Amino acid sequence: MHVVTVHISIVIPGATSLKDKRMVLRSIIDRVRVRFNVAIAEVGSQDIYDRAELGLATVGERPSQANGLADGVLRFIEDTLEQKGVAEVIDAVFTEY
Fold it and tell me: Which one of 25, 32, 58, 60 has the largest count of C-beta atoms within 10 Å of its C-beta?
């Protein structure tokens, strides 16, 4: 069994309150959970309204499988945020176990 975690940093320039931030995050977290069935949650910068940190974890039988799934989720998040024009991924750190 292989586990991959991803720490994703996001900037939300249009957010003027924590409510604005939560609307953006709730939408993306719900979409990721339904589409990919992975663990994802807000893990940092919770009191800063224009920044967000998400943690993501995937499990696979082979390293390439777990990495591929994590990479696919990251691309989905980037594409979704770009299409909506509400936020941008500024950093993503992958860790394998």
Answer: 58
The rounded distance, in Å, linking the Cα atoms of 79 and 17 is 24
Tokens (6 digits) for 14:
């249009």
pTM: 0.90
Digit-coded pLDDT (tens) for 40-69: 999 988 899 999 999 999 999 999 999 999
Q: Domain of 45: which CATH number? A: 3.30.70.1120
Kindly state the percentage of the chain with pLDDT values over 70: 100
How far apart, in whole angstroms, are the C-alpha atoms of residue 11 and residue 33?
Answer: 21
The number of beta carbons lying within 10 Å of the beta carbon of residue 18 is 12
Q: How many domains does the chain have?
A: 1
Buried b (16+ CB within 10 A) or exposed e, 34-52: eebebebebeebeeebbbb
Q: Which domain holds residue 88?
A: 2-96
